[in-house]
Specification:
Radius of gyration: 18 Å
Distance between the termini: 54 Å
Number of strands: 0
Strand content: under 5%
Number of domains: 2
Helix content: 55-70%
Largest sheet: none
Length: about 230
């Protein structure tokens, strides 16, 4: 079974009920290069793929692809042996996934006034940057990364933090703090500060704390017009 057929089968199972172990086993066997490439396509087309799939099952599928405890897809999508353009496309696909699927779904639950503990999808959104590798490590320390991938990372986080809604701000601010050791963080944070008024409204407290902590760690100077 090829990767597209396996993912189609899994999502079909998700739309009909709880995810089955058989479908999960099929996906666990798809760690070949072709399957890694397909993760990007899944993220790019997530609005179509996930149509009709409940939020909790969307979270389950995505967690499988990004959480190192579930599979090794996430690290392999930014593996150093992959061409730079392919890794950049993956990062941009993450932005599309947030814009077309994760954040709109969370906005709908917010508008309904759902109470109680955070949903699996909200937990995934807020913890994405800590569980899903976004840069290529070239050594054992956090600072040893492939600097060529940094501009795409900063573009993605910049665009998400400016999106409306608390979930976008909290998620992206956590991502900025998580990746503060990546080259270019100071200028990236200055750009966020400069453009933040375009977002409108105040940042949620958790996002403001993470953002200001990142600014302090990066040694970013405040833009003159902020």
């Amino acid at each position: 079974m090829d990767c597209e057929a396996a993912i189609t089968r899994w999502l079909s199972d998700a739309a009909c009920g709880p995810l089955g172990l058989d479908a999960t086993a099929v996906l666990r066997g798809l760690l070949a290069d072709a399957a890694i490439a397909y993760v990007t396509e899944l993220f790019e087309r997530s609005e179509t793929w996930f149509r009709g799939v409940p939020d909790e099952d969307v979270a389950s599928v995505l967690r499988f692809f990004v959480d190192g405890n579930e599979s090794n897809y996430g690290p392999r999508c930014v593996a150093p042996q992959l061409p730079l353009a392919r890794r950049e496309r993956y990062l941009l696909a993450v932005r599309e996934l947030f814009a077309s699927t994760i954040l709109p779904r969370l906005a709908r639950t917010t508008s309904r006034g759902d109470a109680g503990p955070p949903s699996p999808l909200r937990k995934l959104c807020l913890g994405w940057w800590a569980t899903c590798p976004m840069v290529t490590r070239t050594g054992p320390t956090a600072a040893e990364v492939d600097a060529r991938l940094a501009p795409a990372l900063w573009d993605v986080l910049h665009d998400i933090v400016l999106r409306p809604g608390d979930d976008a701000a909290r998620s992206a601010a956590a991502g900025l703090l998580e990746h503060v050791s990546v080259p270019g963080s100071a200028s990236a944070l200055q750009r966020v500060l400069r453009d933040l008024p375009r977002r409108g409204g105040e940042l949620p407290d958790a996002a403001a704390r993470d953002l200001f902590a990142a600014i302090a760690l990066a040694g970013a100077a405040w833009p003159a017009d902020v």
